[in-house]
Amino acid sequence: MGEFELIRRFFQPLAGRSASSSLILGPGDDCAIQRVPDGRDLVFSVDTLVEGVHFPKAYPSDKLAWRALAAAASDLAAMGAEPVCFTLALTLPCADESWLSAFSRGLFQAAEEFGLALAGGDTTRGPLVVTLQVHGVVPKGQGLHRNGAKNGDLVCVSGCLGDAGAALEYLAEPDPTQDMQAVLQRYHQPLPRLALGQQLSGVASAAIDISDGLAADLEHILEASGVGASIRAEAIPLSPALVRLTGDQAVDYALRSGDDYELCVTLPPAGWQALPSDIRQQLSVIGSIEPEPGLRIQGWQGTADQHGFDHFRSMS
Ligand code: ADP
Ligand code: MG
């Protein structure tokens, strides 16, 4: 199977599947064309996943496709952006039809779920690497940034944290229990908070998606904003399955391990009060912003500087 047949069979059918009409030209030409409506800013981000680094060797390709697009879409969620389209740069060791058809199926399902149309891509031979660029739009000037947190703002997170990190322990489990299956589902099929991100645009003072662990990602907000924060360990939302599986360690997973793709946002107390209750129900208040730099975690024994995933930390 040649490169062009591969593209025609497995990727062309995914084109133009988004509800959005602003993707004017999809795959098949030298470039794709996206129209940015008046009064909108274009928001875009690229993510690379390398086999053996970001996902395990021999990881099922339908799940890989979903996780890759979810991780990329989560960056749009963190900006409060409405998803529009994406490009896919795929490097493959060989053209394995069953691998490709499962990959294409997983990508198709995720693309439909997140409202992202495939706009184009690039296909090359080499070690397995998946690179996705996602495009979205925000109302002009309304994109959520990391640098807007202010003294007195509340720190909130969506959903439950730590499940995806704990799931790594059970990936090879031949007969997972129901609780293991629940956390594994969070690892295999993360759901980026796209609707919530858009609802918080214009309300949150700062936002980030939790891809490297709550402590590391919240610290990005604190550094960018030139502030500190105090959070309470007991306020960090944990799933019952995670607590049953890991007991006292559940909070460590939430603070230190990544891949949850929930949102961490800051907002002034008045903004919180004014939020509709259905949005507040998706968030937990875990602490507040303070002038003194650094992250303080009340009721937690670990040290705040041993967390998160950093490719180069050990090399410096
Ligand atoms: P060029 O040489 O002009 O860069 P390519 O041969 O790389 O073009 O790609 C031909 C067309 O196929 C382009 O429109 C490109 O966007 C599309 N394409 C290539 N690989 C993929 C892929 N994995 N998924 C979707 N579209 C792809
Ligand atoms: Mg090309």
Automatic annotation (TrEMBL):
Keyword check for Oxidoreductase: no
Keyword Protease included in the entry's annotation: no
UniProt EC number: 2.7.4.16
Sites where the protein binds Mg(2+) 5: 212
Catalytic activity: thiamine phosphate + ATP = thiamine diphosphate + ADP
Pathway: Cofactor biosynthesis; thiamine diphosphate biosynthesis; thiamine diphosphate from thiamine phosphate: step 1/1
Pfam families assigned to the protein according to its UniProt record, in alphabetical order: AIRS, AIRS_C
Residues that, per the record, bind Mg(2+) 3: 30, 75, 209
HAMAP family found in the cross-reference section: TMP_kinase
Protein name in the entry: Thiamine-monophosphate kinase
Organism annotation: Marinobacter suaedae
Name of the gene this protein is made from: thiL
